[in-house]
Amino acid sequence: MDIVRRAQAIRGIVRRARESGLRVGLVPTMGALHEGHRGLIRAINEGTDVSVVSVFVNTAQFGPGENPESYPRDQAADVDVCVAEGVDYLFLPEAEEIYPPGASTHVKVDGLSDRLEGASRPGHFQGVATVVTKLLNIVGPHVVAFGQKDAQQAAIIQRIVADLFLDVEVEVHPTVRDADGLALSSRNRFLSEEERTAAGAVSRALDTAQRRVEEGETDAEKIAEAVRTVIDSEPLLRVDYVELVDRNIFTSIDVLEKEALLVMAIHCGTTRLLDNILLSPTAGDT
Q1: How far is it between the farthest Cα atoms of the chain?
Q2: Most-buried pick from 10, 56, 75, 250 (CB within 10 A)?
Q3: Using CA atoms, how far apart are residues 31 and 91, in angstroms rounded to an integer?
Q4: 37, 124, 142, 173: which one is catalytic?
Q5: Angle, alpha carbons 37-38-44 (nearest 5°)
């Protein structure tokens, strides 16, 4: 595996690969790689000839009151993961490489960026949209991979690719979970032992939503309330939002008439847990 730190260098490498008829895949990350990232890397390796992983802690996507310096960093461990997974190129740029002096252009998806996670973390999705657009332009992959856990982020990237006619395929892969169902996240390492136990209620809440729908419930607020009840049963957890939304534009729905996404953000100590589940009405209700 080669480590590349300059944008022009990785761009040249990928350009030559494409000219040789090779298919290139990218997994953009902020590091602190875990099994979820490994799953994305494996998917890219299976579907492409050349794999690129980027590790860049993008300070522009941290919201008010969030400290980028607190984000977990372990570059040596990230290198080991990439080597073990057979990554071809690890792109490790410095901040000045992505945001050179004088950089003043931003990317923002109106509407979709302002709801739910965007409302809770003002400016977050503008930072995400800008850095991902930059990475896609720098690397120039045929395909880029994201995880379903960050469903709103994935939808925003898909919107950018469509609106800006970017020549890349966006793959969204299933959420990877721990044994108790908790979605894997780099921030999970901040949970204390007691908090980690309490966090298991998040996946139980999703299971509750699934059961209510299987029993025939279609009222969005009743489904969301059942989820909140499970979360509220854990004193260490606090709901930021729980909503049933259109899976493409993330606007709230009142009645589950077709496949929709139940999304949630839960506070557990100083850690914020995101998760979601696709729900479809039972055959008798459609």
Answers
A1: 59
A2: 10
A3: 11
A4: 37
A5: 90
Could you give the CA distance from residue 258 to residue 220 in angstroms, rounded to a whole number? 12
Per domain, the residue ranges of the chain are 2-173, 186-276
pLDDT category at 286 given cuts 50, 70, 90 is very low
Measured CA angle at 172 (ends 171, 173), to 5 deg: 115
Asked if 182 and 188 touch (Cβ cutoff 8 Å), the reply is yes
d(CA 261, CA 281): 12
Which is nearest to 114 in space by CA: 105, 127, 123, 103? 123
- At 6, the pLDDT band (50, 70, 90 cuts) reads very high
For 161, the enclosing helix (H) or strand (E) is helix 151-163
186-276 is classed CATH 3.30.1300.10: yes
* Whether residue 37 lies in the annotated active site: yes
Is the pLDDT score of 284 beyond 60? no
Give Cα 214 to chain centroid, integer Å.
Answer: 27
- CB count within 10 Å of CB 97 equals 17
Segment 271-279 shows an average pLDDT of 97
Q: 44 and 26 in contact (C-beta within 8 Å)?
A: yes
Short-list 32, 266, 276, CA closest to 177: 276
The class (CATH top level) of 2-173 is: alpha beta
Q: What is the reported pTM?
A: 0.94
How far is residue 275's CA from residue 172's CA, in Å, rounded to a whole number?
Answer: 14
